[in-house]
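Researcher: Re-running this chain for the archive, since the previous output was lost when a drive failed. Same request as before.
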Amino acid sequence: MRYKLIFFFVSLHFIVFAQTEDNDSTISMELQEIVIQAPKVIHKADMDVYHPSTSAVENSKNGMQLLSNLMIPSLDVNDVMGSITAGGQSVQVRINGRVSSIEQVKNLLPETIKRVEWIDNPSLRYGDVNYVVNFIVTNPTAGGSLMLEARQVLNTNWGKYRADSKFNIGKSQWSVGGQFKLTEDISVHRDYNETFTYPDGHTLTRIEKPLGGSLDNDQLGAWINYSYIKPDTTVFYIGLQTNGNTSDKWIYKGLLSLSDESEDIELTTKHGSTGQTPSFSAYLEHHFPHKQALVVDFGASLFLGHSFSDYLEKLPDETAYITDIHTYIKDLNQSYGIEADYIKNWGNSRFTAGTFYNANLNRSEYKNLDGEIFHQRQDKLYFFGEYFQRINKVTLTAGLGVQYNSYLFKETDQGNHSWNLRPQATFTYSLNQDHQFRLSFSSWQTNPSLAETNIVPQQLDGFQWQIGSPDLKTSSSYNLTFRYSFNLPRVSGSFGVRGFSSPNAITPYMYWDENRLITSFENSEGLSNVSLWLSPQIEIVPDWFFVSGTIQYQAERMKGTGYKLYNHNWNGNVTGRLMHWGFVLSATYRKAPRELWGEKISWGEDISMIDLSYNWKDWQFGAGIMMPFGKYDQGSISYNKWNRNEQHLRLDMRRMFYLSISYDLQWGRQKRGAYKLIDANVNADQSKAVGR
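Model: Regenerated structure tokens:
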């Protein structure tokens, strides 16, 4: 693999990378090392760097497909589902160091992606994120572009459609686009059984026999962005977008059999939500002499919609309902945020300091309570400072953040507030280009959600209720990770061990109040977790056939009011990809982790997929099958002493055949788009109408 030498100089024992851009781009604020002839992956002090091969670029039509073709071992990239995860957790995507979205990644031209940076231990300047993947993009040769994509399942109502266009006028760029995801009338059923233990010791078991159900989940989004770039000096960005559910509804039907030999009960339960979240973003980045920069980001978002839950019980052949529960919550929730960071670079060091403020103003109207209205306010203030230093083969990063959180219910004057410290440090030793050792410590805080603090009682069924706790405190989490990264002939990857602790994690707990079983929330005695993982990438046939994946073992302990539970499991993913003559054939299998939280072990969807695509000029044609083997299973097991239950959600996703087509049109010459170095992270809260 050959790479162009951009710029280099050697001074004493230090090798420093200085990225040079064309006249219409901004200065990179990252410290990198120069590489003339290098392996596919380069292990740096705070990231792994992947350089796309020629075949990976030629067989991709957008940035998402290129990321998938890179086959980064720790990453689970699903272009069909539009998701990027690692170890079952979300991954933040960035373009040229600036926070972006998966849709923006899909709008990247593969030939403009110079390298991809994988950061599995983000420092304080990245905010509250678990992982980061950063696309470094050079100037494309096109002055405008139109990207169209459609994917439709043939045997059910599931599909995704996207369009994006860019236009350049001088130093300005406009971007306009939209997307739609169709999910309608998907067959679904639920296996559910539970045993209740009453305070006097007697028990009742309910077994739900599934009688059918359906799922709707249509999503619609649109955006328009404007950016202005003054070369090497100023970036200005402003954007408007909206995303939301036009239809989100689950319906289950079942027959309840009771252990007390009473007559079986016909059950119907529905829950869902509908709403849109328009948002606004304004960003300014200015570079000063002596490698200094000031960046400011402001954001605002609004959620306008509703959530609902219906629970109905009746005897067979009867018209009157034994239990008839309806919850309907209408939200008008606002979120505002502003962040400002100062960045200073030297030859082998970097200093970053910043502050962030976020306010959430929530207004919830309960239609089932005669229109009663409740208001909640949440405030978050955060300061941090971080220093990065490279000394020969050793790199040190250390930082400290201070975070203030508060929330208050207006009607009852109930709430809480707290100050928390966020220390973070990383020590990296690079033996050589092929072997690296990293020890890192990180911490963060988690605010209680609107649903967890909601003081309004919500009825789940004939005798179960949920009531939030206004006394919850912000929880803290701590993570210690050791990682060894390696490059061997045709094999690269990492091996590591991670220890995690959340000593006051916010979890559910149950108690009886006379004849009502209440679910509420508490700051528990905490979760402890140890995990080991191995993530290799194997080049079986150079530039043709690759296999990558992750295998992980987790052991957990959870303590709370009246319980101490243990859990251990194996999970991971594997992908094989064959690329040649414009064809790409890939097969993927993912086993989701079985994770302990509170008194419940939950698991996400296990996915298998086979995909074949062919590239011809500006077109790409594809076909595939979702869930060619295995059964869709998403569910949980609860070990609560008052309510032990097990549920399995089954979707009719087996052997879903789909076709896809995409088209990229490019013309003229355009500059690189403006992306944000920081993100004010304004996400309006949403109420949740709970159900059984």
